[in-house]
């Protein structure tokens, strides 16, 4: 099902589809992160990605609670956006031989994914509030806050921990 198919007739349908989209995305991220961790050579980057992999698994559990509270079975809907972001990151990192440049590329790919998740969770929270699903807002907000924190950690690794500076040198 695409975003604007005839299966989506109401705001509720669109909200559920958005949940299915991010549910799929989080699952794809749990498959992509181990590859990024394996490629990363910067200690801080590797540790941050490992930590976020654990968070992502917890985020999936929260999404399952959201589906449960809505009386829906947890179900994933294909998300071409996350597939594209992951494929792009894989393609770029596969072409890089210099470890310092590779770490900078991993940070960039991870941040693109984080920004997608931040946008998706922000929208889902707004829709949940509008639809009166106050009982799921806190789960979505917790996930959003973790995504924002992960993005901040990636910024720190890139800027303060020297990943970008080493890539330029």
TrEMBL record:
Residues 46-73 form a coiled coil. Keywords: Coiled coil. CDD domains: YciF. InterPro entries: DUF892_YciF-like, Ferritin-like, Ferritin-like_SF, YciF. It comes from the Bacteria. PANTHER family: PROTEIN YCIF (PTHR30565). This is Uncharacterized protein. It comes from Bradyrhizobium retamae. The lineage of its organism: Bacteria, Pseudomonadati, Pseudomonadota, Alphaproteobacteria, Hyphomicrobiales.
